[in-house]
Amino acid sequence: MRECISIHIGQAGIQVGNACWELYCLEHEIQPDSQMPSDKTVDGGDDAFNTFFCETGAGKHVPCAVFVDLEPTVIDEVRTGTYRQLFHPEQLISGKEDAANNFARGHYTIGKEIVDLCLDRIRKLADNCTGLQGFLVFNAVGGGTGSGLGSLLLERLSVDYDKKSKLGFTVYPSPQVSTSVVEPTTAFSPPTPSWSTLMWPSSSTMRQSIISAGVLSTSTVRPTLTSTVSCHRLFYH
Where is the Tubulin/FtsZ GTPase domain (predicted)? Predict the structure, then answer.
């Protein structure tokens, strides 16, 4: 099998993850209690859903994912939500205080206290894989956890799993929708070399999607997408 491990970091990463795993379950007919009545294979088989789900001895299909946040509020919603029986409790990791939209707190202080636990949970998932292909990383760079802890976690992953692919699904702050005045500063904090190990979806596809969203929320003339200068003018002028 060819497995992928999803890592959801911070509030944005977890909330995006909730939507993703709900869709995965609907697509493969997996129930909120992690049962899959339509699965008739023995010992997991080679079905497509085994890329994202691990089958237990009891026949449950548990996501190959880790959710981590420095404060418990958002993860508590997962623990008490509709899909609370889908995830293994060890895969839901939360601290006691958030990073307050501060990159340094997420990377150097509070995040540093929890990163080893995160890596231990990821290592357990990786050990259960027969053909680990890589990691899907969901986070936002406008918050202290997504940017700071996300960067720290990538640094460690690049050491332990340097040969594995790491695909990033990153949410960037917008001047139209902002929850904190320090989001731009946090987002543009000096990036560590670990960010260069991430791969993102096709840049042209991402740029098209971002510009489409921007045009819908502003009266800016739609650019021609012929150069990055057009993108710069759209968002900064």
Answer: 49-224
